[in-house]
Amino acid sequence: MKRIILSITFTLMVAGIPLFGQATFPENGIKDIRESSFAFRNATIYLSSGEVLENATLLIGNGRVVAVGKTVQIPDGTTIYDLKGRIIYPSFIDLHTDYGLPKATPSGQGNVFMQPEKIEPANKGAYNANEAIRADYNAIEQFEINAENAKSFREVGFGVVLTFRPDGIARGTSALVALTDSKINEAIINDRAAAHYSFQKGSSAQSYPISLMGSNALLRQTHYDAEWYEKNKSALFYDEALAAYIASRSLPQFYTVTDLQNLLRADALGDEIGKQFIIKGSGDEYQQISNVQATKAPLIIPINFPNAPEISNPFEAMDVPLEKMKHWELAPFNPGLLAKNQVAFAITTADLKDKAMFWPNLKKAIKNGLSEESALKSLTETPAKLINAADKIGQIRPGYLANFIICTNNIFSDSAVINENWVLGKRYIIHELDTNDHRGAYNLIVADTTYKMEITGKQGKEEFNILKNDSVSIKITASVERDYIKLSFSPKTQVGPIRLSGWKKGDKYEGTGQLPDGTWINWSATYTGAVAKKASKKPVPPKKPDINPHANPGPVIYPFIAHGREKLPVQETILIKGATVWTSEKDGVLENTDVLIRYSKIEKIGTNLSEQDARVISGAGKHLTAGIIDEHSHIALSSVNDIVTNSSMVRMKDVLTPDDISIYRQLAGGVTTSQLLHGSANPIGGQSAIIKLRWGRPASELLIQGADKYIKFALGENVTRAANPFSIRFPQTRMGVEQVYVDNFTRASEYEEAWKKYNSLSAKEKAIAVPPRRELDMEPLVEILNSERFITCHSY
Q1: 110, 587, 603, 695: most buried, per Cβ within 10 A?
Q2: SS3 640
Q3: Measured in whole angstroms, how far is the alpha carbon of residue 413 from the centre of its chain?
Q4: Per-residue H/E/C for 429-450
Q5: In whole angstroms, what is the distance from residue 139 CA to residue 167 CA?
Q6: Span 377-400, pLDDT tens digits
Q7: How far apart are the C-alpha atoms of 402 and 63, rounded to whole Å?
Q8: What is the phi-psi region of residue 283: left when phi exceeds 0, alpha when psi lies from -120 to 50, beta otherwise?
Q9: Sign of the alpha-carbon torsion through 248, 249, 253, 259
C-alpha cells in the first residue's frame, strides 16, 4: 500500500511543474524536470522601440516572458541576475535568409540560344510543367539547425530568422525559426510562414523563361492557372505546385528583386494579379522614393553599403561611372529616407559578405538620418508584424517568446557590447556578462615582486598590460568572469609564464598561482585609481571630412546615371517665336512662324502670337518639326527575346528600362517616340510598347496610354534556329514557321469561341460551369483576329 501512495505522490509533484522542451522525446537517463525560471533586475528594458522601463525587472520561465515591470514578484527558486543598469532589447528578426537549408544547384545554362532546348521538366512526379514554378517546396522539409551560422546571427543580436530557398520564380514556403541550438522541434515557430517569388528562375534547366518578361508572364500564367485549377473540380490531373500555390495564398507574399526597377515591376505585377507583395529590395530605393512610397509595399532592405570606388589608378578612376559614385554617396541615407517618407521596412543582414559589417553599417545609417527608434523598430516590431508573428516576437511582453539581448549600454552607441542573447529562454553568452568595471591602475604583487598593471579598453573587452617606465612592456593574457580572474604573463627576467588565478575582494584581487619553475605563490592586485590618459607622441592627423554629413544627403539625379538632372522638367506654357515650322501637313513649311504650346498640346500656330504666362523661346534661324517616330526599336528594354515558339504572352511594357542612355541619345537625334518590339528569335514574338522618350521619368510615365497594341512576328532563318546545330525547337524549317501561324491562329479562334460560349451562360449556369483556362499566349492573337491593325513583321 505504501508503494501505491508513494507512486501517486510522485506523479502529482511532476504534474504540478510546467515542463520545458520537447515533451514527446524520450530521455536516455534521469529526466530534468526543473522549471527554467530567471529574473533580471535593475535593468533598462525596451518593451518595444518606443516604450522603455527604467530600473525594471524581467521574469521569464519555460522559454516565455512571464512578467516585466518595476514591481515584479519573483517566485522562489528563480535564478536572479542583477544587471546594475544594463539594457535589455528584444532580439532582432531577419526576414531574408536561407539559414539551415541546402543550397540550390544552378542550371549553368549559359547562352541558351546555342544549346539544345530543354522543353520537358526533369522533375519526376505530379509537379508543374515548368521547373521554375516550385510553389510545392516547403523549407520546413529540409530545414536543419546550423549551429555555426546561428551563432553568427546571435552575435549581432538576432534571435529569429525567416528561412526560404532562393530558387525559382515561385519558391514555395518559408519557415520562421528561432536561432537555438536545441532540437529542431523547439526551433520551429511557424512551419509555413510565407510564400516567396522572384524574377529569377534559379536552378531550372528548362529553356523557358530566359528573360525578365518571360518570368513575369510565367508567374501571371501560374496565377490564372491556379484560379482555373481551383474551380475545375473534375480535372483529370493533379498539379502539386498549383495546389500548393492555392494553399499559400493566405500567407504573407514575399518578392525578391535585384534593383529599383524590378521593385516597381514586382509591385505592378502584384497589382495585376491581386497580391500586395512584401518586397526585398536592394538598397537603392532612395532614387525614386516617391514612386516607392506609392507602391504601398512593405520592404526588406539590406545595409550592404558600397565601399568607396577605387581611384588610386588615375586611368581606372576615369572609368568610374557617375551612378556608382552617387550610390556610394547616398546609399547610407536610404533607411533614413524610407523612414522619413513613412515606408514600412525591415532591415536584413542579406547581401553582407560578413555579418561583422552589420553594426558598422547600421550605425552609419543612423549617422545619416535613420533614428535609433526607427532602426530598432525595423529589426523587431516591423518584421514581426510582416510575418504575422507580432503576438509572439519583436517585443518584450508577458506571453511572448523569451528572445532578448542584454547590452552594456545603448546598443547603437560606439561603445556598446552585446553581453548575452537569450533565445527561447536559453542563454547564449556573446561577451561575458560582468557588471563590475575592472578598468583602472593596480599594484600587482606576485610573491615578493611588485608590478604596475593597467586594465584599459571597453568594458567587456578589457586589455591588460604591465607597465615599465610608463610604457607598455608586457602584455597580459587575461579573462574575467564576474568576480573570477585569470592572468598569464612572461616577465623578461624569467623563462616561461607566470600563471595566476583568483577572485575579487573589495577593491583588490587575490589568489594563488605558479611561477615558471612551478613554485606555488600568493598574489594580489590592489586598485590605485583610474588610468591616466597619456599624451600621444605621434602627430595627430587632421580629421577627414565626413563624406556623408549627418542627415544631409546630396541631390538625387533623374535618371540615376550620367546626364541625369536634379530637377525634372515640368509641363508648362511655351511660346516659340519666329521659327521655320515644318507642319508635315497641307500647309507645308511656314516661315517666321510662332507656335504656342500649352502644357502637353499645341494650341496655336501663327504669327505675332503672344501669351502673358508663357515662357518665350526664340526660334529665329531655327527649324521646328514634329518629333521623329522610330517604328522599330529595341532601346530601353532589359530583355528583348524569349525562346518559346509562341511568345505572345510576354510584354515589352513589363521590362521598360527608363534609365537606358539610348533614350538620351535618341532625344539628341530628334526622336520623341518609339515602338519597342520583341526580338526575332520566335515566329510569334511578344507585345510591343509605344513610348514617349521622357528622360528621367519612371517606366510607368513612358507608356503612351490608349495607344494601339501590336505584336512582333518574324520569318526567315533566325526563327528556325538554323544557326544553332543543337536546336530541337519547332519549327526547324520555313514550312514549319508557316504551320506555327496556322496552328496558333486556329487555336486562338477556338479559344475565343470557348470564351464566347462561357460568357453567354446565365449567372446560374456559370455558377456550376468551369470557365475555359485563361491562356495568356492566346489573348493577344484573339485581339489581332478582331482588329484591322497591321501586324509588325520581320523577314531576313
Answers
A1: 695
A2: coil
A3: 25
A4: ECCCCCCCCCCEEEEEEECCEE
A5: 11
A6: 999 999 999 999 999 999 999 999
A7: 5
A8: left
A9: positive
